[in-house]
Amino acid sequence: MGLQLYLDLLSQPCRAVYIFAKKNGIPFELRTVDLLKGQHYSDDFAQVNPLRKVPALKDGDFTLAESVAILLYLTRKYETPDHWYPQDLQARARVDEYLAWQHTALRTSCTRTMWQKMLFPVFLGQRVPPETLASTLAELDRCLQLLEDKFLKDQDFLSGPHISVADLVAITELMHPVSAGCDIFKNRPKLAAWRKRVEAAVGEDLFQEAHAVIMKAKDLPPADTAMKERLKPLAQLLLQ
């Protein structure tokens, strides 16, 4: 049995793994796990990932959870070009630094922005207090400034002159608020230029393919009662 990737392209880490595998010609079987239908809570999926989260990887009898771990596993197993996860000690450390920071910073603010600005009112039919959304957008703006000042600086990419897995993780995060109608690149020419470089390095067709689901999320039909109940714990978390 070959490599299997359990993904839902509604999820930003899943998009990063998908783009990386496709761009590097890594053969895999896509096993779609519909998050909004709660398929990640099924007993069958728990056999692959007891954490009940996507992405997940199955390579023969070996299973692996967590997007960063999966990305790094793929770089090593398939010996992908060095720029994705450089051998140079300090260049690799820069990639690691970003990957360690983004979990509780950019990812959190991007996820909250998309849910509060789009999925709560459109999908769940739930009003978001204006002060809550304002606070979330302020935090997103702070994280974007840090992304520019601390990580991108005056470089072409986050870790230097070439694209790395850090850039994939970052751009897929940023497309969450973009899908909700936030023009986060409008007054950030440095970040906008970086986005164009990332898209060019990945390939425009692949980039659009990976983001087709999230860019259509605004057209999701309203959630039914059962789905609203299933999503209640997540909704409470994302409104804090």
UniProtKB/TrEMBL annotation:
Residues 1-82 form the GST N-terminal domain. This is glutathione transferase. GO terms for molecular function: glutathione transferase activity. The keyword Membrane does not apply. Homodimer. PANTHER family: GLUTATHIONE S-TRANSFERASE THETA-3, PTHR43917. The gene is LOC112412247. Its main location: cytoplasm. GO terms for cellular component: cytoplasm. Residues 88-222 form the GST C-terminal domain. It is an enzyme of class 2 (transferase). One of its GO terms (biological process) is glutathione metabolic process. Belongs to the GST superfamily. Theta family. Its EC number is 2.5.1.18. It catalyses: RX + glutathione = an S-substituted glutathione + a halide anion + H(+). It is found in: Cytoplasm. It comes from the Eukaryota. InterPro entries: Glutathione-S-Trfase_C-like (IPR010987), Glutathione-S-Trfase_C_sf (IPR036282), Glutathione_S-Trfase (IPR040079), Glutathione_S-Trfase_N (IPR004045), GST_C (IPR004046), GST_C_Theta (IPR040077), GST_N_Theta (IPR040075), GST_Theta (IPR051369). Keywords: Cytoplasm, Transferase.
